[in-house]
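Form 7-S
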Amino acid sequence: MTRIFLFFLCFLFLQNSFSQQFYIRGRVIDNETKLPLKGASVYINNTTLGTITDEDGNFELGTFQPGIYQVVASYVGYKPLLYSAEVNTSGFLIRFKLDKKETIIREVLVLNSETRKRYIEIFKKFVLGISNAAEHCSVKNIEEVQFASGDTKDEIRAYTEKELVIENPELGYTLYFELVDFNYSKADSRAFFFGYTRYVDWGKDEETKKKWLRKRREAYEGSTVHFFRSLIKKELAGEGFTVYQLGRLQRSENDTISADASVQKTTTGIQMESKTIEDNMIRIYPDSVYRIYELLIAEGWRINYAKNTSLKTEVMKKTFLVQPRKGTLVGLRLRTAPVLINEKGIMLTPIGAYYEGVWAYERLANMLPEDYEVK
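Output:
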């Protein structure tokens, strides 16, 4: 009886801790002068949750469930800071000390109007994408984007002094994008970019929100976030995903191949694809207190989504992409371990893996905020 009573008390304690909601409070100051920064932006990265500081540099965000949140503080003329906050108490405080942006000596490219126009189109293609939503997006301060030489003669870097303001009428958001790095290689026409994003939802009331609900649902279905959320909940099959684990095998005469596996001979050995399930694909990351997951990608995953996604349909009209007639083919390959995602299906280590198939064309214009919920 005593054991049952103690178990019941523990259960109530855990239930109360996870039903309790917390705030993130703090202050933003100049690291050199220690003076408060009024009007600084403070937000949860990749969400609609944000605010600005008051006259004393103070801010308050909330409410939150216990967990880990990426909190960003930014101010014009200062370098943005990201803090990974583990929120588990009601008195959580963050003090951001922002440094002024250094005057970096860059080999700035002096471009004629035609060349700059071409570079801007390259920049928009990789940051926004090539979908219908990307075509309808408007970067209100595109003049902020400047270009400089990279580490080699084939590389070009893009940078901005202010966050970019991107209006997305297709999904009903304004995005404020703080560009941290953009590197384009002319040799292989590939680009890497990284930054922080906050969203402002245009549909605050139910009447206007209906206008974008369908488009947001279309963008969500078959996306990376849809896949990762389904993986975490162990609902891949029910949500329309079938996953094959890629691997290489040195066969002997006694080896047998499962009926759920396919084999292809290559110059480096035998490539094997075997149907897999959630338990073999994911695990709780051992260093995390809250729900952070590690993806067990190994050689890679080939993923079939049962439906034709809107992104697939749009991309196939504008580029050559091998896809089945019915369904959407995507993939995930390991670049460097560990590859981590949170419980909202957002990748926390974006350079740890790279996407293949339709997912390779997911960009800002088709991405939804982390706090998006299917309706």
